[in-house]
Amino acid sequence: MDKTEILKALAHPVRVEFLEWMKEPERHFSNQAHPLEMGICANQFEKRCGLSQSTVSAHLSTLEKAGLLKIDRVGQWAFYRRNEETIAAFLDELSSSL
Amino acid sequence: MDKTEILKALAHPVRVEFLEWMKEPERHFSNQAHPLEMGICANQFEKRCGLSQSTVSAHLSTLEKAGLLKIDRVGQWAFYRRNEETIAAFLDELSSSL
DNA sequence: TCTATATATCGGCAAAATCCGATATCTGGA
DNA sequence: TCCAGATATCGGATTTTGCCGATATATAGA
């Protein structure tokens, strides 16, 4: 849990938005073909943020490398879900250190 | 209280360090000529982080523009103190939205 | 008024971040 | 085996950030 890396990952509003969307999957990703329990399919984010596929992939990768997202690869898809443990640990750490 | 601007301000480890140092002034700035109750004098940060005067000034300015620091100008000095209201509001907001 | 000190701002350079389109990789199905 | 779809990675252009030294500004004191 690298606090600095996480803070850098959160320094872009699109990435913060991704995390917030994923907090309420049924609200923001109800049109997903796969069950939401599998996680959120990468292509779902493209439609919503208007950025290109490669840019979205990079944002997701940044969040994943920082430990904020977990990824499950199933077939040709990549399903992302929040890493609640890391997020909670980060918030605790930030609240006590800052 | 602009969450995005605050997160960008926190995306540099030196700035986070400044805020953390200021949480315990007597511990980190005990050598300050002026009473710590006035705030922390800008030049105190230079000695501790090894960066140039202009760079430190820019970091402090970033924190102040984000609302995380308040500044009191007294004579030729600039005294900085944490803006606890904004910091607490930001942490609350982040904890509930993230 | 002259000088010393503290801080802010400017100009320029280097590094990092952001974005895109193109391409590579991987999977599943025909 | 070939093709289509999903995602990752590459290459390059642009913007932002970070850093410094030099300079400007402002204050205090001689």
Protein architecture, described:
2 copies of one chain form a homodimer. With 98 residues, chain A is an alpha+beta fold. Chain A has one domain (3-97): Winged helix-like DNA-binding domain superfamily/Winged helix DNA-binding domain (Arc Repressor Mutant, subunit A). In chain A, strands 1-3-2 form a 3-stranded antiparallel sheet. Chain A starts with a helix and ends with a helix. The model of chain A has no long low-confidence stretch (mean pLDDT 96). In chain A, α4 (42-49) crosses α5. Chain A has helices at 3-9, 13-23, 25-28, 42-49, 53-65, 84-97, and strands at residues 40-41, 69-74, 77-82. Chain A contains 6 helices and 3 strands, in the order αααβααββα. Chains A and B meet through α1, α2 and α6 of A and α1, α2 and α6 of B. The first copy, chain A, binds a DNA duplex (30 and 30 nucleotides) through α5. Chains A, B: It holds the Pfam family HTH_5. Chains A, B: InterPro entries: ArsR-like_HTH, HTH_ArsR_DNA-bd_dom, HTH_MetalResp_TranReg, WH-like_DNA-bd_sf, WH_DNA-bd_sf. Chains A, B: This is ArsR family transcriptional regulator.
